[in-house]
Amino acid sequence: MRLDIHSEMILEEYRTKLPVFERLKAIVMELLQRCLDDNNLIVSGLEARIKTERSLAGKLELKGYKYHSLDDITDILGARIITFYSDEVDLISALVERIFEIDWSNSVDKRKMMETDRFGYMSLHYVCRIPESVYNDPAMPELNHIKFELQMRSTLQHVWANMYHDMGYKSDVEIPIEYQRNMSRLAGMLELADEQFSQIRREITDYRRSVQSLVASGNFNEVPLNGDTFRSYLELKPFGRLAEKIAAINQAELYEDSLMPYYKIFYLLGMKTIGDIENMRNEYSEGAYQLALHQLAGTGLDIVACSVAVQNLCIVAVLKQGFGEAGLLKLFNLVYGESSYNAQRAQRVFEQAQKINLVQ
Amino acid sequence: MEVIINQQEEKTLVELKGRIDTTNADQFQQEVSPLMEGNQLDIDIDCTGMSYTSSQGLRTFLLLQKSVNARGGKMVLRNMNPMVKEVFDITGFSNIITIL
Q1: Cβ-defined contact of A307 to B58 (cutoff 8 Å)
Q2: Architecture of the domain whose range is B2-99
């Protein structure tokens, strides 16, 4: 590649300033990560790169005449935030505007530039600078003068950009006309999918809020059993009293483990509503306690997991419904996965339950 | 009580023998404590020779599992005799610790 003297000078400036760009990259990444953390935002990707010398030389060969110095090239450092949902791009951009100084004359919202008869699926590009109020290193004042580019796009916008780039095209006009229709269809599909994902997420969030209030209201028979409703139900600590009573047998420490795995068990036991679990809890708590008392008394074991309460409730429910040892084996296979231990345990628990009249 | 630790390339193998009770629970915790700080991802504990564990032993297994999980690894206990398994079952620890 042969460059004119002017472009060679810009390239030399790039080599000299490379350590400054490396430092700038680290600071930008740190500021962005902190911003995401402070706002409890989880994104699909956060990345940055410094343009390679080869790539810069290519750019200068094509349009080096446009640039007076390296400062005029704003994408030597490029950072990118990839959100999960398209509606998060606006949120992220609002936060970014609080950190960086945005060069609005050179920033573009390519999402709004698309003409109705063109195709493509674009992102939001900001040209930024770090203000001294955000970061200031007297030993490297250039850090506050160098512009860099920040792209913000959704995951599907990122997919589009990557695929497009992989095909070797830089703008839609380069695409042969026979492929333009298919590319338009794809762009439309991705845009619709992006909108649908955002909408579904909003609806799920609304659903979870309504479920939380329904569970909190105590109308359990009206609450269908699913992962969301069960999670809300557990927030009421419905098995807490039974677990505490079991722990008191040996004055034991109560270890709080997750009860979410039992959602699947309740579901497979045929429970349709949270009310069904409540009925089971009311009906079988005493049996579950008696079983724990029989098993733990005199052992000196002074730590128990909260889940032992739910575990024993399920055992009593199986026995009271007349499913016997075979039912216990099925239950243990569901809870722990199939294992050679389960048959022995089913037999042992069945014998214990017989002794305290829990077997129907 | 005897703890035999064998560091392998992909995981740490631990063999437990005898009883873990009030007389030696602290010793058990001390002996496995390097595994809580190490970089090794997975821990595979063979309980064939273990005849009993007290609550203190359960607590140590819990600590060990937490440290392994915190670095993205897995801990499994294998070949437990029925008496030891009973301790894990009636305390609900079978719901917390992977027993194969």
Answers
A1: no
A2: 2-Layer Sandwich (3.30)
